[in-house]
Write a structure and sequence with these properties.
The structure holds two protein chains of two kinds.
Chain A: H1 2-17, H2 21-47, H3 57-82, H4 89-109, H5 128-131, H6 133-154, H7 159-180
Helix pairs in contact in A: 1-2, 3-4, 3-7, 4-6, 6-7
Chain B: H1 5-16, H2 28-39, H3 49-59, H4 62-66, E1 80-83, E2 86-89, H5 106-115, H6 130-133, H7 138-149, E3 162-163, H8 173-180, H9 194-206, H10 210-213, H11 256-265, H12 278-284, H13 291-301
Antiparallel strand pairs in B: 1-2, 2-3
Classes of the chains: A mainly alpha, B mainly alpha.
């Protein structure tokens, strides 16, 4: 887009303003350089490409699966308390903190585009993640906010409130899995 | 397992009351649960057919297919259902007389659910799971109509299906129905208690779980010997897991309580949360059932034999 604007600019100079050839070249260079710089900035902002945990997609995928597993273990721990099946409030607090910390890592570093299904063996990350990046970010942010709230609620001993917020976190997990994960068999 | 329920106390009461799922309307749960209890053979049956129908509506998960997720008008249809035979678009089932089913008689509705036939006698594609709904009791079907009739009418024309020949040839469907639609109902099985029968009814008739969780042959017929044993080509062409009692391929290692808990909030025994469409089923359907009914489903699933 920016380049096209630059080009229009240049053609205007030629047709309507009647500048000297050297002047035109100089202005063209300036216009194109400016357009290029704009484009680079826009590209960075648009992709919002965060720093992956590793430059090796296989390593990132492993790290991602480890993180997901740790969140699953934490949810299991919290559910034991919610269901009154041997869980403790300390387990809830620990689990809530694990999920909240892990949720910060998800978007920024665990989903580079080259780690999807078909690119990494056994990857469960659907291509929809990168096709619908804003929706994916939104889904990931939902986990950040619901897990942060769980940390807050877990500071109390209110089992009913914890159960309710646990359900909200669960919905964040499931909501994202519904659209963006294809579980391997 | 029932002995476990009282210990769950407040938390499960909170969940059961629908606090988890914002989509539950504020006034509905009490009447729906009452209706559900009635269906389960415990407590009082609601005297309001609309309330009873709402429970069936949730148990059958009508909302999922008949509404475009997030953007669509409720029950106005238009959701694309991709199958190996082509893409089907669900129809409008609001009471709109022109584009919905507002002009249908009760007999029309019963025939659609039981025999897979439209009021004009034409046959429906079995993507509409009448092969399961045919096992619903007539009372439940009538209640369901009462509920659907009480929903807001939306004028939205149906979208034609995109199905390639010969599967798109509707005139072949009566042949298919003659061969594969078994309207004989679910026979009572000796040695099984009321709870098991209730669970089977919810799984096989209302919940139509086998429509996604069972393999089909090249004519789209569910393989009854491998009922609930998973499918390589479920919705969107994705694999759907086995839910038989097979300890390795199925969910044989899950306890009855773990199955019921998954149906309630979507969490599997390993702490993972279901996705791939099942999260939607939990949200629209199983989370809205009574705890007794979820436990009945779990009890039944524990008895489904592994596929040969």
């Amino acid at each position: 887009m920016s380049i096209r604007e630059g080009e229009i600019c240049v053609s205007n100079f030629i047709t309507s303003k009647g500048h000297q050839p050297l002047d035109i070249i100089r202005r063209t260079v300036i216009a194109l350089t400016a357009a290029g710089a704009l484009l680079a900035v826009a590209g960075q902002a648009g992709a919002q490409s965060p720093q992956p945990v590793s430059s090796d997609p296989a390593v990132v995928t492993q790290e991602r699966e480890k993180t997901m597993k740790s969140m699953g273990d934490a949810m299991k721990k919290i559910s034991a308390y919610v269901k009154n099946e041997g869980g403790t409030i300390d387990g809830v607090r620990e689990g809530a903190a694990t999920i909240q910390q892990a949720s910060h890592k998800i978007v920024p570093s665990l989903f580079p585009a080259d780690t999807g299904i078909g690119k990494i063996k056994d990857s469960e990350a659907k291509p929809e993640i990168w096709k619908q990046w804003p929706q994916f970010q939104q889904a990931a942010q939902k986990l950040e906010s619901t897990s942060a709230e769980l940390v807050t609620v877990a500071a109390t001993d209110d089992r009913a409130a914890i159960a309710k917020q646990f359900g909200q976190v669960g919905q964040s997990c499931g909501g994202c899995h519904d659209n963006f994960r294809q579980k391997k068999e | 397992m029932l002995s476990r329920l009282p210990r769950l106390g407040i938390p499960l009461a909170v969940m059961a009351s629908g606090v988890f799922f914002v989509s539950v309307s504020a006034s509905a749960p009490a009447s729906a649960q009452e209706a559900g209890k009635g269906q389960a053979g415990e407590g009082q049956v609601s005297e309001d057919p609309v309330a009873r129908g709402e429970y069936i509506f949730n148990a059958a998960g009508c909302l999922g297919c008949h509404t475009v997720p997030k953007t669509g008008e409720r029950l106005a249809g238009g959701r694309a259902l991709k199958t190996p035979f082509g893409t089907f678009y669900s129809p409008n089932i609001t009471p709109d007389r022109e584009t919905g089913i507002g002009g249908w008689s009760e007999a029309d509705f019963v025939r659609a659910m039981r025999e897979g036939k439209a009021p004009d006698g034409s046959a429906y594609f079995p993507v509409f799971p009448y092969t399961s709904f045919t096992h619903l009791t007539e009372g439940d079907i009538r209640d369901l109509k009462a509920y659907i009739d009480a929903q807001p009418a939306v004028s939205q024309a149906n979208k034609p299906h995109e199905v390639s020949p010969p599967f798109g040839w509707r005139f072949l469907l009566p042949v298919w129905q003659t061969l594969f639609l078994d309207e004989s109902g679910l026979p009572e099985e000796a040695g099984r208690d009321e709870k098991w029968h209730r669970g089977r009814y919810l799984v096989q008739a209302a919940g139509h779980c086998g429509e996604c969780h069972s393999p089909r042959n090249f004519l789209g017929v569910v393989d009854h010997d491998r009922m609930l044993a998973g499918s390589a080509s479920g919705p969107e062409g994705k694999a759907v897991p086995s839910i038989t009692s097979d300890p390795d391929k199925g969910i044989g290692k899950w306890s009855q309580g773990e199955i019921a808990f998954m149906l309630e909030i979507g969490m599997q025994p390993d702490g993972d949360f279901v996705g791939g469409g099942m999260n939607e089923v939990v949200e629209n359907s199983t989370s809205k059932l009574t705890a007794e009914d979820r436990d009945a489903i779990a009890a039944y699933l524990k008895t489904v034999p592994p596929a040969p």
